[in-house]
Amino acid sequence: MNTRTDRGIFPLLPILKMANHLTMESSPHTTITSLVHDIADVLVERGWTLSTAESCTGGGIGFELTAVSGSSRWYEGGVISYSNNVKSQQLHVPEVLLSKYGAVSEPVAEAMAQGVRKLLRTDLAVAVTGIAGPDGGTPDKPVGTVWIAWSTGQSTEARHFHFSGDREQVRRQTVVEALQGVLAVIS
To answer: pTM, whole model, 2 decimals?
Structure first.
């Protein structure tokens, strides 16, 4: 995993590695629900709003966020940007980034997060792009490769992950890591 902590508010992201209580082996639904409640509490306390841009999770992060009553107070919405066309047209990801680095890359994840934050005028955004499988992988970007980015008005940070398991397991792990990152950024 790559973690760059040289930009503003993101030195807290390494604590994600220590969050062993949020593993897929424990009850994921309960874990995710409690994680979303923690996120909600901090966002409400700060008066912040959150948005999402999702590719490989297909709306899974938004689903989990809106499963909590009262989420409309802090969750503005999201864009499911499964295709490159939606990434470029709706989120304003430069086509040169998509051509040069591919959809599953650090610069594209960062541009997605910045794009949805600006589009929905939120304080914080999270974006995910990856290869959930079972096909679509390459030697350079095998199945399970995921980039997650978090963006505020001051800074944007992306992290690289390689998850194992089937399609649903990769997607679920992506949702958990994205939400853990949101909590780390706002804590």
So the answer is: 0.86
